[in-house]
Amino acid sequence: MNNFVAKNLYDKVCLLAKDKIVVNAYSGQGELSRLLAEKAKFVYGIEVQTSAHMHAEQIKTSNMQNICGKVEDKLGEIDKNVDLIVLDPARAGCKASVLDEIINRKIHKVCYVSCNFSTLLRDIAVLQKNYDIKSVEIFDMFPMTAGLETLVIMQQRGS
Ligand SMILES: C[S@@+](CC[C@H](N)C(=O)[O-])C[C@H]1O[C@@H](n2cnc3c(N)ncnc32)[C@H](O)[C@@H]1O
Fold first, then answer.
1. What single-letter DSSP state applies at residue 2?
2. Residues lining ligand 1, CB < 6 A?
3. How far apart are the C-alpha atoms of 29 and 10, rounded to whole Å?
4. In the chain, where are the structural domains located?
5. Could you tell me the fold of the domain covering 3-156?
6. Atom from ligand 1 closest to the CA of residue 49
7. The pTM is what?
8. pLDDT single digits (tens) 40-98
9. Nearest atom of ligand 1 to the alpha carbon of 70
10. Which of 5, 24, 48 to mutate to test the pocket of ligand 1 (most atoms within 8 A of CB)?
11. Is 94 tagged catalytic?
């Protein structure tokens, strides 16, 4: 992984988090949650893999909560007004129920990080019913491979 490119991507995501209540969905080992927590009011990380969750627990700050489970099961249990959701799913993308929950809760901003154009386009098409695309950027995080990371920032229409 090119750390310089990765930092550039994470910096862009964190810029949106200032004083916000943030959900970091598919949060892995919690590194991005931790960076978000430096700027955000509060960060919820949701990750299904127990070992990754345990690592996130080791690096958590007082304004971070790590939730172990599937995003499709756990997002609905967060009862705070979420301002920003960061989605960084595996290649399969997000379950339809996750996208419905984002739309129904009127989460102000969505920051979608994807390694798979096909599921990214599928999921964005659903969100576009209620969200406008603000920016699209591509990051060559794994040089000399075919893999590219795409960052799409969306904002709830009319907000
Ligand atoms: C592309 S990785 C993102 C990792 C993390 N954002 C990072 O920067 O290290 C996707 C993560 O989603 C997790 N995951 C996959 N399906 C999930 C689900 N349904 N709910 C929660 N986490 C899931 C995987 O275990 C993996 O850690």
1. -
2. 26-29, 31-32, 46-49, 52, 70-72, 88-90
3. 14
4. 3-156
5. Rossmann fold (3.40.50)
6. 25
7. 0.96
8. 999 999 999 999 999 999 999 999 999 999 999 999 999 999 999 999 999 999 999 99
9. 20
10. 48
11. no
